[in-house]
Design goal:
Blueprint: H1 2-33, H2 42-45, H3 51-64, H4 66-73
Helix pairs in contact: 1-3, 3-4
Length: 82
Amino acid sequence: MQQREVEGEVEGERERGKEVRKEAMESMTERLSSLENLYFPRALQSHATNPSQRKSILLDLLSRDAAVFLGPFSNHFNLSLL
């Protein structure tokens, strides 16, 4: 019985971690999407015309590969935000 309780607690912690991660990703991409001077590759520039489109592109990139996301965009954050 105790092992099941521990497993349930571990699973609950994982879910809370995912929620916090998702909130952090939403917050970062929201802040970045409001910036007009962000660099996007030429193939994406025509799709990144308004904040909503930029946020979608940024969130997709951050979800797929955080290291690639942080490369060009990390200079827009201070250390306390990362």
